[in-house]
Amino acid sequence: MTSTAPPGFPGRLTAPEPGWTTRSDVVVVGSGIAGLTAALRIHAALRARPGDDGSTVLLVTKDVLNAGSTQWAQGGIAAALGEGDTPEQHERDTLVAGAGACDLAAVRQLVTEGPEAVRELIALGTNFDHHDGVLSLTREGGHHRDRIAHAGGDATGAEIQRALVTAVQGTDGIEVIQHALALDLCLDGDGAVAGVTLHVIGEGQRDGVGAVRCRAVVLASGGLGQVFAQSTNPSVSTGDGMALALRAGARLRDLEFVQFHPTVMYLGPDRRGQQPLISEAVRGEGAFLVDGLPEDGGTRFMLGQHELADLAPRDVVAKAITRRMHETGQAHMWLDARHLGADFWARRFPTILSVCRSYGVDPVTELIPVAPAHHFASGGIVTDLDGRTDVPGLYATGEVACSGVHGANRLASNSLLEGLVFSRRIAEVLPTELRPWAEPVADRRTPGLADAAVRSGMQSLMTDHVGVLRTEQGMELALAALPGLGTTAGELGVEAWETTNLLVIAAALTEAALRRKETRGSHWREDYPERDDVAMAGHFDARLVDGNLELAFHPAPSTDSDTVPAAAGAPR
Protein backbone atom coordinates (compact mmCIF):
# COMPACT_ATOMS: atom_id res chain seq x y z
CA MET A 1 0.00 0.00 0.00
CA THR A 2 1.50 3.34 -1.03
CA SER A 3 0.12 6.81 -0.47
CA THR A 4 1.45 10.26 -1.19
CA ALA A 5 0.71 13.17 1.12
CA PRO A 6 0.24 16.68 -0.31
CA PRO A 7 3.47 18.21 -1.71
CA GLY A 8 5.29 21.29 -0.57
CA PHE A 9 8.19 20.24 1.65
CA PRO A 10 11.74 21.42 0.92
CA GLY A 11 14.58 19.09 0.01
CA ARG A 12 16.91 21.15 2.18
CA LEU A 13 16.66 24.14 4.47
CA THR A 14 17.21 27.61 3.06
CA ALA A 15 20.43 28.81 4.70
CA PRO A 16 23.43 31.03 3.93
CA GLU A 17 26.53 29.50 2.40
CA PRO A 18 28.89 28.19 5.12
CA GLY A 19 31.10 30.94 6.47
CA TRP A 20 33.53 28.56 8.19
CA THR A 21 34.64 24.95 7.88
CA THR A 22 36.25 22.37 10.12
CA ARG A 23 36.97 18.64 10.05
CA SER A 24 36.37 15.66 12.31
CA ASP A 25 36.29 11.95 11.56
CA VAL A 26 32.91 11.50 13.21
CA VAL A 27 30.21 14.02 14.13
CA VAL A 28 27.73 13.10 16.88
CA VAL A 29 24.60 15.28 16.99
CA GLY A 30 22.96 15.38 20.43
CA SER A 31 24.13 15.34 24.04
CA GLY A 32 21.68 13.10 25.88
CA ILE A 33 22.50 9.59 27.02
CA ALA A 34 22.59 8.33 23.42
CA GLY A 35 24.87 11.08 22.07
CA LEU A 36 27.26 11.22 25.01
CA THR A 37 27.59 7.43 25.08
CA ALA A 38 28.15 7.34 21.33
CA ALA A 39 30.86 10.00 21.50
CA LEU A 40 32.71 8.26 24.34
CA ARG A 41 32.50 4.76 22.90
CA ILE A 42 33.28 5.74 19.29
CA HIS A 43 36.26 7.82 20.37
CA ALA A 44 37.64 4.93 22.42
CA ALA A 45 37.06 2.47 19.57
CA LEU A 46 38.76 4.70 16.99
CA ARG A 47 41.79 5.33 19.18
CA ALA A 48 42.09 1.59 19.88
CA ARG A 49 42.70 0.77 16.21
CA PRO A 50 46.29 -0.20 15.38
CA GLY A 51 48.14 2.75 13.90
CA ASP A 52 45.40 5.29 14.61
CA ASP A 53 46.95 8.72 14.20
CA GLY A 54 44.54 10.65 16.40
CA SER A 55 41.02 10.27 15.02
CA THR A 56 38.63 12.88 16.37
CA VAL A 57 35.00 13.03 17.37
CA LEU A 58 32.98 16.24 17.29
CA LEU A 59 29.95 16.39 19.59
CA VAL A 60 27.36 18.94 18.51
CA THR A 61 24.55 19.98 20.84
CA LYS A 62 21.72 22.37 20.22
CA ASP A 63 21.84 23.89 23.69
CA VAL A 64 24.44 23.22 26.38
CA LEU A 65 25.84 19.78 27.16
CA ASN A 66 23.48 19.05 30.04
CA ALA A 67 20.31 20.16 28.23
CA GLY A 68 17.94 17.86 26.35
CA SER A 69 15.47 15.18 27.35
CA THR A 70 17.78 12.88 29.34
CA GLN A 71 18.10 15.30 32.24
CA TRP A 72 14.31 15.29 32.63
CA ALA A 73 14.04 11.51 32.98
CA GLN A 74 12.66 10.97 36.46
CA GLY A 75 11.72 7.31 36.80
CA GLY A 76 14.95 5.56 35.91
CA ILE A 77 16.50 3.00 33.61
CA ALA A 78 15.13 -0.52 33.20
CA ALA A 79 17.34 -3.63 33.22
CA ALA A 80 17.18 -7.15 34.64
CA LEU A 81 19.46 -6.45 37.61
CA GLY A 82 17.36 -7.71 40.52
CA GLU A 83 17.26 -11.09 42.19
CA GLY A 84 14.98 -13.46 40.30
CA ASP A 85 14.67 -11.16 37.29
CA THR A 86 15.90 -12.24 33.86
CA PRO A 87 16.30 -10.70 30.40
CA GLU A 88 13.60 -13.08 29.21
CA GLN A 89 11.10 -11.57 31.64
CA HIS A 90 12.12 -8.06 30.60
CA GLU A 91 11.71 -9.13 26.97
CA ARG A 92 8.20 -10.41 27.61
CA ASP A 93 7.08 -7.17 29.26
CA THR A 94 8.60 -5.14 26.41
CA LEU A 95 6.84 -7.21 23.73
CA VAL A 96 3.49 -7.03 25.49
CA ALA A 97 3.74 -3.24 25.76
CA GLY A 98 4.81 -3.00 22.11
CA ALA A 99 1.51 -4.57 20.98
CA GLY A 100 2.84 -6.72 18.18
CA ALA A 101 4.97 -4.05 16.49
CA CYS A 102 8.37 -4.74 18.10
CA ASP A 103 11.40 -6.17 16.32
CA LEU A 104 12.13 -9.25 18.40
CA ALA A 105 15.85 -9.30 17.55
CA ALA A 106 16.20 -5.67 18.65
CA VAL A 107 14.32 -6.32 21.88
CA ARG A 108 16.59 -9.25 22.69
CA GLN A 109 19.64 -7.08 22.13
CA LEU A 110 18.20 -4.47 24.46
CA VAL A 111 17.37 -6.78 27.34
CA THR A 112 20.45 -9.03 27.12
CA GLU A 113 23.02 -6.25 26.72
CA GLY A 114 21.20 -3.85 29.07
CA PRO A 115 22.42 -5.14 32.46
CA GLU A 116 26.11 -4.93 31.49
CA ALA A 117 25.56 -1.49 29.96
CA VAL A 118 24.04 -0.21 33.22
CA ARG A 119 26.90 -1.73 35.22
CA GLU A 120 29.32 0.19 32.99
CA LEU A 121 27.37 3.38 33.70
CA ILE A 122 27.90 2.71 37.39
CA ALA A 123 31.62 2.11 36.81
CA LEU A 124 31.76 5.41 34.94
CA GLY A 125 30.62 7.18 38.10
CA THR A 126 26.83 7.25 37.96
CA ASN A 127 25.51 7.25 41.53
CA PHE A 128 22.37 5.15 41.50
CA ASP A 129 20.36 4.86 44.72
CA HIS A 130 21.22 1.97 47.05
CA HIS A 131 19.65 0.59 50.21
CA ASP A 132 21.87 -1.25 52.68
CA GLY A 133 24.50 -1.53 49.97
CA VAL A 134 22.14 -3.08 47.41
CA LEU A 135 21.02 -1.31 44.24
CA SER A 136 17.50 0.07 44.78
CA LEU A 137 15.01 -1.08 42.16
CA THR A 138 11.40 -0.06 41.71
CA ARG A 139 8.53 -0.91 39.37
CA GLU A 140 6.68 1.07 36.71
CA GLY A 141 3.74 0.48 34.39
CA GLY A 142 3.93 -2.69 32.32
CA HIS A 143 6.73 -4.27 34.35
CA HIS A 144 6.08 -7.43 36.35
CA ARG A 145 9.35 -7.09 38.28
CA ASP A 146 11.14 -4.37 40.22
CA ARG A 147 13.81 -3.53 37.64
CA ILE A 148 13.96 0.29 37.48
CA ALA A 149 17.27 1.65 38.78
CA HIS A 150 17.00 5.28 39.88
CA ALA A 151 19.22 8.05 41.19
CA GLY A 152 18.58 10.96 43.54
CA GLY A 153 15.11 9.57 44.11
CA ASP A 154 13.58 11.01 40.95
CA ALA A 155 16.59 12.66 39.30
CA THR A 156 17.95 9.68 37.37
CA GLY A 157 18.39 11.42 34.05
CA ALA A 158 20.20 14.35 35.59
CA GLU A 159 22.64 12.03 37.39
CA ILE A 160 23.35 9.97 34.27
CA GLN A 161 23.82 13.18 32.30
CA ARG A 162 26.24 14.50 34.92
CA ALA A 163 28.38 11.37 34.85
CA LEU A 164 28.53 11.20 31.05
CA VAL A 165 29.20 14.93 30.61
CA THR A 166 32.05 14.68 33.13
CA ALA A 167 33.52 11.77 31.17
CA VAL A 168 33.25 13.60 27.83
CA GLN A 169 34.83 16.76 29.22
CA GLY A 170 37.71 14.71 30.55
CA THR A 171 38.43 12.98 27.23
CA ASP A 172 41.02 14.43 24.86
CA GLY A 173 39.99 14.06 21.25
CA ILE A 174 36.30 14.80 21.76
CA GLU A 175 35.55 18.37 20.73
CA VAL A 176 32.24 19.95 21.73
CA ILE A 177 30.30 22.69 19.95
CA GLN A 178 27.35 23.97 21.96
CA HIS A 179 24.40 26.09 20.78
CA ALA A 180 24.60 24.46 17.35
CA LEU A 181 21.62 23.43 15.22
CA ALA A 182 22.34 20.75 12.62
CA LEU A 183 20.81 21.95 9.35
CA ASP A 184 21.47 19.42 6.58
CA LEU A 185 23.82 16.63 5.58
CA CYS A 186 26.43 17.22 2.89
CA LEU A 187 26.49 14.23 0.52
CA ASP A 188 29.10 12.92 -1.92
CA GLY A 189 28.47 11.65 -5.44
CA ASP A 190 27.33 8.27 -4.10
CA GLY A 191 24.75 9.81 -1.75
CA ALA A 192 26.92 9.04 1.28
CA VAL A 193 27.76 11.34 4.18
CA ALA A 194 30.55 13.81 3.49
CA GLY A 195 29.72 16.40 6.10
CA VAL A 196 27.02 18.36 7.87
CA THR A 197 26.08 22.04 7.99
CA LEU A 198 25.49 23.75 11.31
CA HIS A 199 24.25 27.05 12.61
CA VAL A 200 26.19 28.08 15.70
CA ILE A 201 25.34 30.89 18.09
CA GLY A 202 28.07 32.57 20.13
CA GLU A 203 31.11 30.41 19.43
CA GLY A 204 33.53 33.15 18.38
CA GLN A 205 34.94 32.39 14.95
CA ARG A 206 32.48 29.52 14.63
CA ASP A 207 29.42 31.73 14.54
CA GLY A 208 26.57 31.48 12.08
CA VAL A 209 26.33 28.81 9.40
CA GLY A 210 29.35 26.58 8.85
CA ALA A 211 30.22 23.15 7.53
CA VAL A 212 31.92 20.19 9.17
CA ARG A 213 33.66 17.77 6.81
CA CYS A 214 33.44 14.27 8.23
CA ARG A 215 33.40 10.56 7.39
CA ALA A 216 30.32 9.62 9.43
CA VAL A 217 27.46 11.28 11.31
CA VAL A 218 25.66 9.78 14.30
CA LEU A 219 22.25 11.34 14.99
CA ALA A 220 21.22 11.28 18.64
CA SER A 221 19.15 14.45 18.52
CA GLY A 222 16.04 13.30 20.39
CA GLY A 223 12.36 13.49 19.58
CA LEU A 224 9.59 15.62 18.13
CA GLY A 225 7.77 16.87 21.23
CA GLN A 226 7.16 20.40 19.98
CA VAL A 227 4.90 19.05 17.23
CA PHE A 228 2.22 19.17 19.95
CA ALA A 229 0.98 22.04 22.09
CA GLN A 230 1.77 20.27 25.37
CA SER A 231 4.69 17.93 25.88
CA THR A 232 7.02 16.74 28.61
CA ASN A 233 9.90 17.35 26.16
CA PRO A 234 12.13 20.42 26.37
CA SER A 235 11.87 23.20 23.80
CA VAL A 236 14.82 21.84 21.78
CA SER A 237 12.83 18.72 20.76
CA THR A 238 11.78 19.90 17.32
CA GLY A 239 12.42 16.79 15.22
CA ASP A 240 15.56 18.25 13.62
CA GLY A 241 17.42 14.95 13.27
CA MET A 242 14.43 13.12 11.80
CA ALA A 243 13.81 15.91 9.27
CA LEU A 244 17.50 16.16 8.34
CA ALA A 245 17.66 12.40 7.71
CA LEU A 246 14.40 12.47 5.71
CA ARG A 247 15.77 15.20 3.45
CA ALA A 248 18.96 13.16 2.91
CA GLY A 249 17.05 10.09 1.70
CA ALA A 250 16.52 8.07 4.90
CA ARG A 251 13.22 6.47 5.84
CA LEU A 252 11.13 7.27 8.90
CA ARG A 253 9.08 4.46 10.46
CA ASP A 254 6.24 4.08 12.98
CA LEU A 255 5.74 7.82 13.49
CA GLU A 256 2.09 7.23 14.33
CA PHE A 257 3.10 5.49 17.55
CA VAL A 258 3.36 8.57 19.74
CA GLN A 259 3.31 7.93 23.45
CA PHE A 260 1.23 10.27 25.57
CA HIS A 261 2.27 10.06 29.20
CA PRO A 262 -0.85 9.54 31.31
CA THR A 263 0.19 11.60 34.34
CA VAL A 264 1.42 15.03 33.32
CA MET A 265 0.55 17.82 35.74
CA TYR A 266 -2.44 19.75 34.42
CA LEU A 267 -1.76 23.49 34.50
CA GLY A 268 -4.81 24.78 32.63
CA PRO A 269 -6.23 24.71 29.09
CA ASP A 270 -4.04 27.50 27.75
CA ARG A 271 -0.63 26.29 28.89
CA ARG A 272 1.74 25.38 26.03
CA GLY A 273 5.23 23.92 25.68
CA GLN A 274 6.98 21.75 28.22
CA GLN A 275 4.75 20.54 31.05
CA PRO A 276 5.80 18.97 34.40
CA LEU A 277 5.89 15.18 34.38
CA ILE A 278 4.64 13.18 37.34
CA SER A 279 6.74 10.06 36.96
CA GLU A 280 5.17 6.65 36.60
CA ALA A 281 7.41 5.67 39.50
CA VAL A 282 5.03 7.57 41.81
CA ARG A 283 2.36 5.03 40.89
CA GLY A 284 5.01 2.34 41.17
CA GLU A 285 5.38 3.31 44.82
CA GLY A 286 1.64 3.10 45.47
CA ALA A 287 -0.08 6.24 44.18
CA PHE A 288 -3.37 5.73 42.33
CA LEU A 289 -5.71 7.60 40.01
CA VAL A 290 -9.15 8.87 41.00
CA ASP A 291 -11.87 10.63 39.03
CA GLY A 292 -12.76 13.26 41.59
CA LEU A 293 -11.84 14.87 44.86
CA PRO A 294 -12.62 12.85 48.00
CA GLU A 295 -15.39 15.20 49.00
CA ASP A 296 -16.99 14.64 45.60
CA GLY A 297 -16.91 10.86 45.95
CA GLY A 298 -13.94 10.26 43.66
CA THR A 299 -13.36 6.62 42.72
CA ARG A 300 -10.36 4.56 41.56
CA PHE A 301 -11.36 4.06 37.93
CA MET A 302 -8.31 1.95 36.94
CA LEU A 303 -9.45 -0.97 39.08
CA GLY A 304 -10.82 -3.65 36.78
CA GLN A 305 -9.42 -1.99 33.64
CA HIS A 306 -6.23 -4.09 33.59
CA GLU A 307 -4.55 -6.73 35.72
CA LEU A 308 -1.95 -4.13 36.78
CA ALA A 309 -4.61 -1.45 37.47
CA ASP A 310 -2.82 1.90 37.88
CA LEU A 311 0.44 0.31 36.70
CA ALA A 312 -0.95 -0.86 33.37
CA PRO A 313 1.05 0.08 30.24
CA ARG A 314 0.98 3.76 29.44
CA ASP A 315 -1.37 3.55 26.49
CA VAL A 316 -3.93 1.72 28.63
CA VAL A 317 -3.74 4.31 31.41
CA ALA A 318 -3.75 7.29 29.02
CA LYS A 319 -6.82 5.95 27.23
CA ALA A 320 -8.60 5.24 30.50
CA ILE A 321 -7.92 8.76 31.78
CA THR A 322 -9.07 10.31 28.51
CA ARG A 323 -12.23 8.21 28.44
CA ARG A 324 -13.04 9.15 32.02
CA MET A 325 -12.43 12.83 31.26
CA HIS A 326 -14.92 12.61 28.38
CA GLU A 327 -17.46 10.74 30.47
CA THR A 328 -17.33 13.23 33.32
CA GLY A 329 -16.73 16.40 31.31
CA GLN A 330 -13.67 17.18 33.42
CA ALA A 331 -10.45 18.63 32.02
CA HIS A 332 -8.25 16.28 34.06
CA MET A 333 -8.16 13.45 36.59
CA TRP A 334 -6.31 13.33 39.92
CA LEU A 335 -3.39 11.34 41.30
CA ASP A 336 -3.61 10.47 44.98
CA ALA A 337 -0.23 9.96 46.65
CA ARG A 338 -0.98 11.48 50.03
CA HIS A 339 -0.60 8.17 51.84
CA LEU A 340 3.10 8.02 50.90
CA GLY A 341 3.79 10.59 53.60
CA ALA A 342 6.00 13.66 53.87
CA ASP A 343 9.23 11.81 54.67
CA PHE A 344 8.83 9.39 51.76
CA TRP A 345 8.02 12.19 49.32
CA ALA A 346 11.08 14.18 50.42
CA ARG A 347 13.40 11.18 50.09
CA ARG A 348 12.04 9.38 47.02
CA PHE A 349 10.58 12.19 44.89
CA PRO A 350 12.22 15.46 45.97
CA THR A 351 12.22 16.94 42.45
CA ILE A 352 8.55 16.20 41.76
CA LEU A 353 7.63 17.44 45.24
CA SER A 354 9.39 20.73 44.60
CA VAL A 355 7.83 21.16 41.16
CA CYS A 356 4.31 20.44 42.41
CA ARG A 357 4.69 22.92 45.25
CA SER A 358 6.02 25.54 42.83
CA TYR A 359 2.64 25.31 41.06
CA GLY A 360 0.68 25.55 44.30
CA VAL A 361 -0.06 21.85 44.86
CA ASP A 362 1.32 19.97 47.87
CA PRO A 363 1.15 16.24 47.03
CA VAL A 364 1.70 15.36 50.69
CA THR A 365 -1.74 16.73 51.52
CA GLU A 366 -3.46 17.31 48.17
CA LEU A 367 -4.37 15.40 45.04
CA ILE A 368 -2.34 16.21 41.92
CA PRO A 369 -4.33 17.23 38.80
CA VAL A 370 -3.10 15.15 35.84
CA ALA A 371 -3.91 14.63 32.17
CA PRO A 372 -2.14 12.90 29.26
CA ALA A 373 0.37 14.90 27.21
CA HIS A 374 2.92 14.05 24.53
CA HIS A 375 5.91 12.25 25.98
CA PHE A 376 7.86 10.03 23.58
CA ALA A 377 8.16 9.10 19.90
CA SER A 378 8.44 5.33 19.49
CA GLY A 379 9.15 5.75 15.77
CA GLY A 380 11.91 7.59 13.96
CA ILE A 381 14.73 6.99 11.49
CA VAL A 382 14.81 3.37 10.33
CA THR A 383 17.97 1.63 11.55
CA ASP A 384 19.30 -1.89 11.58
CA LEU A 385 20.49 -3.65 14.72
CA ASP A 386 23.74 -1.64 14.71
CA GLY A 387 22.27 1.80 14.13
CA ARG A 388 22.88 2.02 10.37
CA THR A 389 20.39 3.99 8.28
CA ASP A 390 19.61 3.95 4.54
CA VAL A 391 22.21 6.68 3.96
CA PRO A 392 25.81 5.35 3.91
CA GLY A 393 27.80 6.87 6.76
CA LEU A 394 24.69 7.98 8.68
CA TYR A 395 23.81 6.25 11.96
CA ALA A 396 21.03 6.99 14.45
CA THR A 397 20.44 6.12 18.10
CA GLY A 398 18.05 7.00 20.91
CA GLU A 399 14.66 8.62 20.42
CA VAL A 400 15.50 9.95 16.96
CA ALA A 401 15.83 6.36 15.74
CA CYS A 402 13.38 3.52 15.16
CA SER A 403 15.45 0.60 16.40
CA GLY A 404 12.39 -1.63 16.67
CA VAL A 405 12.48 -2.11 20.44
CA HIS A 406 9.44 0.00 21.34
CA GLY A 407 6.89 -1.16 18.79
CA ALA A 408 3.54 0.53 19.23
CA ASN A 409 4.13 1.62 22.81
CA ARG A 410 7.40 2.05 24.72
CA LEU A 411 7.68 0.15 27.97
CA ALA A 412 8.44 2.52 30.86
CA SER A 413 12.14 3.32 31.41
CA ASN A 414 13.29 1.47 28.29
CA SER A 415 14.21 4.72 26.54
CA LEU A 416 17.40 5.47 28.47
CA LEU A 417 18.42 1.84 28.02
CA GLU A 418 17.82 2.01 24.27
CA GLY A 419 20.11 5.01 23.88
CA LEU A 420 22.77 3.33 25.97
CA VAL A 421 22.69 -0.09 24.27
CA PHE A 422 22.42 1.01 20.65
CA SER A 423 25.07 3.72 20.96
CA ARG A 424 27.43 1.04 22.22
CA ARG A 425 26.54 -1.13 19.23
CA ILE A 426 27.23 1.69 16.78
CA ALA A 427 30.67 2.12 18.35
CA GLU A 428 31.41 -1.56 17.72
CA VAL A 429 30.86 -1.36 13.96
CA LEU A 430 31.50 2.25 12.92
CA PRO A 431 35.33 2.24 13.14
CA THR A 432 35.54 -0.65 10.66
CA GLU A 433 33.04 0.99 8.30
CA LEU A 434 34.47 4.51 8.08
CA ARG A 435 34.43 5.62 4.47
CA PRO A 436 37.35 7.53 2.96
CA TRP A 437 37.21 11.32 3.06
CA ALA A 438 35.03 12.51 0.18
CA GLU A 439 34.17 15.84 -1.39
CA PRO A 440 30.55 16.98 -1.07
CA VAL A 441 28.81 17.51 -4.39
CA ALA A 442 26.78 20.59 -5.19
CA ASP A 443 23.45 20.37 -3.39
CA ARG A 444 20.69 20.33 -6.02
CA ARG A 445 17.86 19.74 -3.56
CA THR A 446 15.15 22.41 -3.60
CA PRO A 447 15.55 24.75 -0.61
CA GLY A 448 12.70 26.08 1.49
CA LEU A 449 11.84 27.72 4.77
CA ALA A 450 8.54 28.10 6.63
CA ASP A 451 7.40 31.10 8.62
CA ALA A 452 8.08 30.59 12.34
CA ALA A 453 4.74 32.26 13.10
CA VAL A 454 2.78 29.19 11.92
CA ARG A 455 4.19 26.93 14.66
CA SER A 456 1.45 27.65 17.18
CA GLY A 457 -1.28 26.87 14.66
CA MET A 458 0.43 23.63 13.69
CA GLN A 459 0.69 22.56 17.34
CA SER A 460 -2.99 23.24 17.94
CA LEU A 461 -3.91 21.34 14.78
CA MET A 462 -1.84 18.32 15.83
CA THR A 463 -3.04 18.31 19.44
CA ASP A 464 -6.70 18.60 18.45
CA HIS A 465 -6.69 16.03 15.64
CA VAL A 466 -3.63 13.77 15.98
CA GLY A 467 -3.34 13.58 19.75
CA VAL A 468 -4.60 10.91 22.14
CA LEU A 469 -7.92 10.60 20.26
CA ARG A 470 -7.77 10.22 16.48
CA THR A 471 -10.42 10.00 13.77
CA GLU A 472 -10.27 9.92 9.98
CA GLN A 473 -12.12 13.21 9.67
CA GLY A 474 -9.84 15.03 12.07
CA MET A 475 -6.62 13.71 10.58
CA GLU A 476 -7.73 14.47 7.02
CA LEU A 477 -8.38 18.03 8.14
CA ALA A 478 -4.90 18.24 9.66
CA LEU A 479 -3.21 16.65 6.65
CA ALA A 480 -4.90 19.04 4.26
CA ALA A 481 -3.87 22.08 6.30
CA LEU A 482 -0.25 21.26 7.17
CA PRO A 483 1.42 21.84 3.77
CA GLY A 484 -0.36 25.17 3.45
CA LEU A 485 1.24 26.36 6.66
CA GLY A 486 4.62 26.10 4.98
CA THR A 487 3.81 28.14 1.87
CA THR A 488 4.72 31.51 3.40
CA ALA A 489 8.47 31.95 3.32
CA GLY A 490 10.04 32.62 6.69
CA GLU A 491 12.96 34.78 7.70
CA LEU A 492 16.26 33.00 8.24
CA GLY A 493 16.75 31.91 11.82
CA VAL A 494 16.57 29.04 14.27
CA GLU A 495 12.80 29.33 14.85
CA ALA A 496 12.05 29.17 11.12
CA TRP A 497 14.40 26.20 10.59
CA GLU A 498 12.80 24.37 13.53
CA THR A 499 9.29 25.12 12.29
CA THR A 500 10.15 23.80 8.83
CA ASN A 501 11.39 20.58 10.43
CA LEU A 502 8.29 20.29 12.59
CA LEU A 503 5.92 20.73 9.66
CA VAL A 504 7.33 17.86 7.61
CA ILE A 505 7.47 15.54 10.64
CA ALA A 506 3.89 16.48 11.59
CA ALA A 507 2.69 15.68 8.06
CA ALA A 508 4.48 12.31 7.97
CA LEU A 509 3.11 11.42 11.41
CA THR A 510 -0.44 12.38 10.43
CA GLU A 511 -0.34 10.48 7.14
CA ALA A 512 0.88 7.31 8.90
CA ALA A 513 -1.77 7.68 11.62
CA LEU A 514 -4.49 8.15 8.99
CA ARG A 515 -3.39 5.03 7.11
CA ARG A 516 -3.23 2.85 10.22
CA LYS A 517 -6.90 1.95 10.42
CA GLU A 518 -6.84 0.20 13.78
CA THR A 519 -6.13 0.86 17.45
CA ARG A 520 -2.76 -0.52 18.48
CA GLY A 521 -0.63 0.47 21.46
CA SER A 522 -0.33 4.24 21.71
CA HIS A 523 -2.20 4.76 18.41
CA TRP A 524 -5.89 5.09 19.27
CA ARG A 525 -8.50 5.42 16.50
CA GLU A 526 -12.01 6.13 17.73
CA ASP A 527 -13.36 5.02 14.34
CA TYR A 528 -11.30 1.80 14.38
CA PRO A 529 -11.32 0.77 18.05
CA GLU A 530 -10.01 -2.78 17.54
CA ARG A 531 -6.55 -4.08 16.73
CA ASP A 532 -6.25 -5.62 13.25
CA ASP A 533 -3.53 -8.26 12.98
CA VAL A 534 -4.63 -9.26 9.48
CA ALA A 535 -4.39 -6.02 7.52
CA MET A 536 -2.37 -3.80 9.84
CA ALA A 537 0.45 -6.01 11.14
CA GLY A 538 3.40 -4.12 9.71
CA HIS A 539 5.04 -0.73 9.43
CA PHE A 540 4.46 2.54 7.59
CA ASP A 541 7.65 4.03 6.18
CA ALA A 542 7.89 7.64 5.00
CA ARG A 543 10.28 9.03 2.38
CA LEU A 544 10.63 12.52 0.97
CA VAL A 545 10.82 12.47 -2.84
CA ASP A 546 10.86 15.73 -4.81
CA GLY A 547 8.93 17.54 -2.11
CA ASN A 548 6.38 14.76 -1.72
CA LEU A 549 5.97 12.60 1.34
CA GLU A 550 5.58 9.03 0.10
CA LEU A 551 4.15 6.50 2.57
CA ALA A 552 4.56 2.76 2.00
CA PHE A 553 3.22 -0.09 4.12
CA HIS A 554 5.47 -3.09 4.76
CA PRO A 555 3.75 -6.17 6.20
CA ALA A 556 5.60 -7.84 9.05
CA PRO A 557 4.95 -10.75 11.39
CA SER A 558 3.60 -10.08 14.85
CA THR A 559 6.17 -10.36 17.64
CA ASP A 560 3.83 -10.67 20.58
CA SER A 561 5.29 -14.12 21.22
CA ASP A 562 8.95 -14.84 21.70
CA THR A 563 8.46 -17.82 19.39
CA VAL A 564 8.04 -15.52 16.38
CA PRO A 565 11.36 -14.44 14.83
CA ALA A 566 11.88 -10.98 13.36
CA ALA A 567 14.06 -9.94 10.47
CA ALA A 568 17.50 -8.55 11.25
CA GLY A 569 20.51 -7.28 9.33
CA ALA A 570 20.09 -4.43 6.86
CA PRO A 571 17.71 -1.56 7.65
CA ARG A 572 14.26 -3.11 7.81
Structure description:
The chain has 572 residues and is α/β, with parallel strands linked by helices. The protein folds into three domains: 2-11 and 449-555, Fumarate reductase/succinate dehydrogenase flavoprotein-like, C-terminal domain (Methane Monooxygenase Hydroxylase, Chain G, domain 1, Up-down Bundle); 19-253 and 376-433, FAD/NAD(P)-binding domain (3-Layer(bba) Sandwich), CATH 3.50.50.60; 261-375, Succinate dehydrogenase/fumarate reductase flavoprotein, catalytic domain (Flavocytochrome C3, Chain A, domain 1), CATH 3.90.700. It is built from 13 helices and 28 strands. It has a six-stranded mixed beta sheet. Strands 11-5-4-15-24 form a five-stranded parallel beta sheet, with helices on one face. A hairpin with a 2-residue loop joins strand 7 and strand 8 (134-135). Helix 11 packs antiparallel against helix 12 (472-485). The two termini are 17 Å apart.
Mean pLDDT: 91
Sequence of strands across the biggest β-sheet: 1-28-27-17-23-25
C-alpha-based Rg, rounded: 22 Å
Largest sheet: 6 strands, mixed
| DSSP helix fraction | 25-40%
Tally the helices: what do you get?
Answer: 13
Terminal Cα separation, in Å? 17 Å
What is the subunit arrangement here? Answer: single chain
Q: CATH superfamily membership of the largest domain, which one?
A: FAD/NAD(P)-binding domain
Number of structural domains: 3
Relative strand content: 15-25%
Low-confidence stretches: 1-7, 558-572
Which keywords apply here?
30% helix, Flavocytochrome C3, Chain A, domain 1, 572 residues, six-stranded mixed β-sheet, 28 strands, five-stranded parallel β-sheet, 13 helices, Methane Monooxygenase Hydroxylase, Chain G, domain 1, alpha/beta
